[in-house]
Amino acid sequence: MDGPMDSEVVRVHTGSRDAVHDLTADCERFVASYAGDASGLLHVFVPHATAGIAVIETGAGSDDDLLAALADLLPADDRWRHRHGSPGHGRSHVMPAVVPPYATVPVLDGRLALGTWQSICLVDLNVDNADREVRLSFVRG
């Protein structure tokens, strides 16, 4: 903890279908390890062209609703010009324009300042690549 920023990579296996994977526990563990009782920002970034980060309620159906909305907005069919991989794979390359590959969350006194029902989630529509890396970075305020 001698610099203004600490960072680590979390590896996630998302499986063979569209997924919303809750990263909140990983983020809380990371902040507890590096922030102490400091305040600052947690930056969450997925360095993949086909995944995103969402702050959303999970467990009450909202994660499934997000996947359904993305399926409506970005159908897995043959309309996409980017055509390698599974049918509809091109939608995975468009999704980060809708669900960006990053989120920044305030950390106050060593704790994530999320709302009551908010979780930090990896959103992955790419069924051809089930192994993801997510970079967590804590910047002291």
Give an account of the 3D structure.
The structure is a single chain. With 141 residues, the chain is of the alpha+beta class. It has one domain (5-140): Jelly Rolls. 20% of the residues lie in helices and 35% in strands. The protein has 3 helices and 8 strands. The chain has helices at residues 24-34, 62-73, 90-94, and strands spanning 5-13, 19-22, 40-45, 51-56, 102-108, 111-112, 119-124, 131-140. The chain has a 5-stranded antiparallel β-sheet with strand order 1-8-3-5-6, covered by helices on one side. A 3-stranded antiparallel β-sheet has the order 2-7-4, with helices on both faces. A hairpin with a 2-residue loop joins strand 5 (102-108) and strand 6 (111-112). The model has no long low-confidence stretch (mean pLDDT 94).
